[in-house]
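The freezer alarm interrupted the setup, so I double-checked each line after restarting. Inputs confirmed:
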Amino acid sequence: LAKTTQPISMDSYEGQEVNITCSHNNIATNDYITWYQQFPSQGPRFIIQGYKTKVTNEVASLFIPADRKSSTLSLPRVSLSDTAVYYCLVGDRGGGFKTIFGAGTRLFVKA
Amino acid sequence: DSGVTQTPKHLITATGQRVTLRCSPRSGDLSVYWYQQSLDQGLQFLIQYYNGEERAKGNILERFSAQQFPDLHSELNLSSLELGDSALYFCASSVDFGTSAQETQYFGPGTRLLVL
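Predicted 3D structure, all chains:
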């Protein structure tokens, strides 16, 4: 299983760009990197997924360097409603499938 | 709305009791996953089913069991409940074979269990 490491928490202000980095040194060749967002008392919600270089959707961008040992989730111009926990996941291609969410990063956006 | 439904939304019971949580996956999704999230804890993977068969097990207690029925809905059974079992229980579903975390999982709203 590829373990991930993220900052426990981050603070930001409305309108700023937020970058959350995730380390996954043991990522396997076929693994993808996926980010989820979770609001209090709600289930996680898929944000973005990538394999290499850069992926962008209407919500965020995901930057993955060539060695793929880390990835950065970029949230442009955050608002108060982006206050949530953000989880980085890396695929497990082992004999069984177990989703490891980790502790996530608590992002707090201030006015 | 993710399309995944869970019932009940809230459940209050006593220690030693048994409860059943129900999950209906999104239409067309074959895999169902169960997670436990205690207060201030991350999501703990419990178990996954694919098309009626158990696919993977996480740190699921022996007092807990699950199954997926032919219509693909799933139930999580929690027995001999303890205070520490109080948590949010989430169900998620995905469309594919469930062989890697690259699949997008769609989470339900959760069932909040309180054991007194």
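Quick read of the result. The CA atoms of residues 70 and 92 of chain A lie 16 Å apart.
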